[in-house]
Structure formats: structure tokens, C-alpha cells
Amino acid sequence: MSLFTTLYSGSSGNCALLLHEGKYLLIDMGKSCRTTLNALKRLNLAVSDCQGILVTHEHSDHVSGLETFLKHYNVPVYGRAETLQALDNRRILPPAIEAIAMDGKNEEIGGFSVRNFPTSHDVPCCGYRIHTPDGHTMAIATDLGVLTPVVQENLAGCDLVALEANYDRFSLHGGPYPYYLKVRIASDQGHLDNRACAAELLDLIQDGCKKFALCHLSQTNNSPELVMTTVYNVLLAAGIQPGKDTLVQVQSRNEISPYIEF
Q1: CA–CA separation, 180 and 172 (whole Å)
Q2: For the chain, which residues make up each domain, given as ranges?
Q3: Is the pTM of this model over 0.85?
Q4: Cα-flanking dihedrals φ and ψ of residue 198, to 5°?
Q5: CATH class for the region spanning 2-252
């Protein structure tokens, strides 16, 4: 049995966790070291059982807790070569920490088989496709402005997909952000909106995936109610009953979300 959760997920910080028989991977660490450690403690997980930290990209809402964490804990870090170089330039990676550039090749990490794939963002960014020791597969993709064929290929055939649902189009364009920021978010190098996320979920369900975690919701331009309404409308129109035919869970911004077993 494998379990997925997020310790926190939103535009203010992101950290996901994949657990199998006491051993786990972290994906990003975008809030303080203390916040992350407190969350792990609540889950009764020891840092010594962390097999590695997978970094999606260099933005602060994905790495702000790493520097302090890595000063105290010798956990290997994985990511794109450009991302690891950026973290090294900012002195986030201590010299003693093992940093492994993946760039599309499979890595065996504590029994998990991990491959990254590029996502379309305004800095080098990636998602991860992970095979668990018990033979299941999940993928996570956040911070992407468009679902490229490469992304869709890596999401296909998974037992669980964690996908960004960052903003509602009407909330973004009618909201308080300055024009340049609205343009950036809505661009192909920005973030994924609710409708694009819902359409991808429908395709993945028809391909056989039944479990989804919706991540990285904007506090200003989205809400759990908005994204679930959009997703439910798309699925119901296709004759799919959410909750009966599939599980769709919005991940909490500041709290640990319930485990999803897959």
C-alpha cells in the first residue's frame, strides 16, 4: 500500500509526500523547515526515513525551507540540472549534500523508481512520475501553463495524479492582481486554470486513472468550491459520478491533507 498527501499546498508554499511502508519521498519544501518538521511529526514520520527530496523548480514557494533543513539533515536532493545549479548559486545546497541531476532518466531512490519530465513554466521546471515498491504509479505536475504532450504522456496510465488547479479564469481577470501578473499567470509559462485541469482529469479518467489530488490553488484567484464546481460540471456532463466513479480531493493550503491510498 502506498499513500500520498501534501503537508501544505498553495501559492504560499508547497510540499508533497509519498509514503510506502515507513519510507517516504518529499516533493519540494516551500515553507519553513519548522513548519515541515512539525507536519512530519504529526504524521509520526522520522526525518531519517526520508529517502530524498525531489525539487520541481527554484521558486521560493517550493524551496524556501530547504536551506535550513539541509543544514541539519543529510538528505539527497534531486531535480533538473538547471534547478540544482540555481539552488547552488543561492547557497541553498550545502557542500555535503548529495545533489543528483535527473533530466529524464530513471533514478532508484529508496525503493521508488523516479523519472522527471519538463513542465512549461517561466523557469526550468519539472514534474515527477514515480513507481512505488509495491508496483503502483503516481505522477505530480504543478506550475505549468499548458499541458504539453510530454506532460500528458507522463500523467497517463497512473493510479494517482496530483495536478495543479491554480486559478479560476474569471477570478483572475476580475481580481486585484496587476495586469502584467495576470498575463504571466495565464500564459503558457504560467499556471494551469480550473477548466484545463478538469479537462485533463476527464481524459485521465477515460484512460483508467481514478484518484486525483488537486494542488497549488491560488488564495486570491481560486477556492476549493470553485475548482470542485468546475471539475464536477465537466465530469457529470460526461456521465462520470465524482465520489462514486472516481476520487477528487482538493489539497489544503496550510494543513496536512488526508492520505490518498493507491
Answers
A1: 12
A2: 2-252
A3: yes
A4: -60, -40
A5: alpha beta
